[in-house]
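User: Please run a holo structure prediction.
Assistant: Happy to. Please share the sequence and the ligand.
User: Here you go; the ligand is magnesium ion.
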Amino acid sequence: MTKILGIDEDSLSVCKTIIEDGGVVAFPTETVYGLGANAFDTAAVNRIFEIKGRPNDNPLIVHVHKDYDITALVEEIPYYATVLAEKFLPGPLTMVYKSKGIVSKAVSCGLATLAIRVPSHVGAQKFLKYLNLPIAAPSANISKHVSPTSAEHVFDDLNGKIDIILDGGKCAGGIESTVLDCTGDMPVILRSGLITENMIKDAVGECGTFVYDGHGEVRSPGMKYKHYSPRCNTMLFDSDELGQALSTYDEEDKKGVAVYLLLGGEHVLKAGGRRVLNLGKTAEDMAGNLYDVLRAGEKCAQLIIAVTPENRGGIMEGVINRLSKACRSV
Ligand code: TXA
Ligand code: MG
């Protein structure tokens, strides 16, 4: 049975022993919960892949304490990256650099680069400081399932598979960090998140976005996989297709299917008496609620009919990206 523990001297000391012995521990961050192991220990890193059932070509992010000197792990840190780190770290921005090859090769699945993140969550900082090690960690869910934003979510996925979940409350951010390639002349977003393209442009003048079209080069291998999916059937409609979504709901409801609408913003007001999984009003609400709502939905719904919210821009990019990955059928 997995224990959920508050973050204090006692629990941190237990975690330190587990990590130093090659085990894994779940811990909170401001985005989602992570499943961490010592990044220098190949067997421990491989254990993460095993526990999650994660494809072995999808690299992990290394998490470090805010005072950790990352030049020990990576090289060729461009000037723009120094500016961005100064402005946004600790925080939900993962930066990809050329690796020095010091951490286990299993972390980056053989890539020449290493993704580094300095989470701002107070509990995460305590954990990383106490261990004083770079911690390789993906989100603490079973691969392809919805990411966890509370200790209970982690427990639902990993009970019996790990010893300890450190409980740092509900994650404030709610969607994963922005992944930013910092190996070229300008920063390029590989995964959208809470630090947006405009925030990066405002800070350093330029920022590209890598769009994976399903073919050819994958710069962030995670992008090619189905992700964030609730364990029930799903359908996704565009924001201007609310009418179609409502009539599909009515047809399914008539057939006796336990169908729920997943709506955000103004759409919620138009649902009539239908069953709704409510993402909330603002972009921040929607990011914060998305995974909780998907996990609540899979417990009661046979079919979730999602409608892309009308809110656009900024962090909605990340929210809509996660929603469409959660609800696509392949
Ligand atoms: O907010 C977050 O980033 C959370 C918390 C726990 O920190 N972590 C997280 O990890 O979302 P994960 O493993 O679920 O997603 C990591 C993403 C994947 O899309 C992966 O392909 C990409 O980061 N990634 C990792 N290392 C990379 C590298 N060297 N080059 C390009 N992409 C990389
Ligand atoms: Mg993940």
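The chain has nine helices and 16 strands.
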